[in-house]
Amino acid sequence: MAREPIRTGRFFSVRLRFSRGVITIAAIVAVLAVGISVGLVHLLKRAEPLAVPEAYCAVRTPDGALDLDPEQAQIAATIAAVAARRRLPERAAVIAYATAIQESKMFNISYGDRDSVGVFQQRESQGWGSKKQIMDPVYATNRFFAALVKVKDYRKLPVADAAQAVQRSAGGYAYADHEGQARILAGAFTGRVPKAVHCWYPPGPKRTPAPRPRTDEARRQLARALGSTAITSEKRGWLIAAWSVAHAQKFSLTRVAYAGAAWSNEMEADRGWRAGGQAAGRQVELS
């Protein structure tokens, strides 16, 4: 009987030492966890993001909204510029857009049915030009419009009928399915709807100097499609501004300004244009 208190005391003594040991270990682990967390925060702040959003373009007009790949936006801008150079009505651009969407989803593809290639899936064997020429969107668009204006009363024809008269496709009825999208694109890229085109592309690594904007090259390429880049009307100014935004990634442009509004390649600016630039709208500023 005399041993019972001793056994009890020794039991509680061991239990107390074990509890203190657990507390000590837990405290050490907590300190280490805090240190590791702080270190990770600093590393993550300095590191490049693991997932960078892809470049995109968006079009917003009273007729509706569309999301585009940058290549689609560039082709849409080219079609509008060529139409303006040829002094064609917006109806011609609508027909061209509906055709391009049906034929290639408005991408400049190097394949198709038999020898069909390019935005409009034109064929070398049918006299549209060489494959190299057809793969040039400016050339291909000019050839499309040259054929379209020969179609009698094309302005009054249904979009599908006018497109089919040029393309002579096996399924010409399908062009009609894209008339709504074509109207949205025409309003935005012809300049009829101001501030309708917004694009964004991911910046380069923070430790790498940003490429210099190639503004002169951008203007030369615009002139290939549009001819004179002089701004003779506010609508023409917005056409040039939309073309420039659509080609921003290609020419490393980070800012386009016109008529008191400015686009910039910033994530927080993804809602579109903001106030900025010369209010008079005498020129489109590129930088």
Automatic annotation (TrEMBL):
Keywords: Membrane, Transmembrane, Transmembrane helix. The chain crosses the membrane at residues 21-44. It comes from the Bacteria. This is Uncharacterized protein. It comes from Nonomuraea pusilla.
